[in-house]
Amino acid sequence: MPHDETSGFRPHDVTMPQLGMAQDTGLLVNWLKSPGDEVAANDILFEVETDKSKMEVEAGRNGFLAATLAEAGEEVPVGDPVAIISDARPEAPVARSARDGGAPPAPAAPVPAEKDTTGAPAKPAAAAPAPKTPGAKGGRILASPKARRLALEQGLDLNRLAEAGHPQPFHVADLDVLRKMPATAPAGAPSEAPRRLTASCAGDGLSEFVPWAAEAQGLTLDAILAGLAGASLGADGSVTVVVERLGLTHSFSVPPGRSLSAVAETDDAPALIVRDLRGTPISTVALGSEQTPVLTVTGAAEGLSITLECAAGARDATEAIRLLTEFAGRMEQPLRHLL
Length: 339
Hints:
Elements: E1 12-15, E2 25-31, E3 38-39, E4 44-49, E5 54-58, E6 63-68, E7 75-77, E8 81-86, E9 94-95, H1 145-153, H2 158-163, H3 174-180, E10 195-201, H4 204-217, H5 221-232, E11 239-245, E12 248-254, E13 264-265, E14 272-276, E15 294-300, E16 303-310, H6 317-332, H7 334-338
Parallel strand pairs: 6-9, 11-14, 14-15
Antiparallel strand pairs: 1-8, 2-4, 2-7, 3-6, 4-5, 6-8, 10-16, 11-12, 12-13, 15-16
């Protein structure tokens, strides 16, 4: 029977804590104790961090550090064991990597009894449960906070990685795999051409409005663009708009109504992306539809050019026309938004 090197411990698991609402994994930054060390309940065992916070994790009870189940620099799913505290000093402390399986395996199944020679028919062995399909659709997706945030900003669906059997938790490097995956369409569904509409408008109104709004209400250009775009959707509730400008990305929650001062930063999944390419040599875009509708603003000879690109299923023709018309009107006359 296989022997688990941690099976002799009376264990107390120290697990990866949850530091944020959208966190599925935590990065183990540093071990402050070594396997075999005696520890007190309030001794710091290790440090963990996400992209937003950092904390020290205590042993939680008196005893000995019998096993470390991840190495510094590894990401561990929230709730998974990171260390084991035993009451007695371990004879052979264990140091494992999360890549090696981390937590000890479940106890081995008992050895089957010897064959009955009395002539009674042997009872058939129970069938082993079928292995779970990794990342079945609708299940929990494990991903680092940074990978999850970038996927939301870029309109990438992590479920597709899970359905393809890509190992979790997902990291930023896995997003490259996702980007290269072929687009999928429902079986038997007729293919529809993506929508691409372009409008032009004067830019003087926006140029005058931005410095006034910055001085009077402390608004940034990105918050203004998000507010104008979010209001153009005509939604009954708050919507999230991502603004990409000069290589920087900011995400904003835009409440219903006309108050730009109520626009606030958020990490929620976007309903719309605004890509501000003013100040670049680019005057025309045809980048193809993304999962999230994109409004691209470029400079034109007489003002601004605005291009809407989206999948046919994201907006019907009427909605696409209304969205672009509303946004172009607000960009041309931002004060109209406040009236």
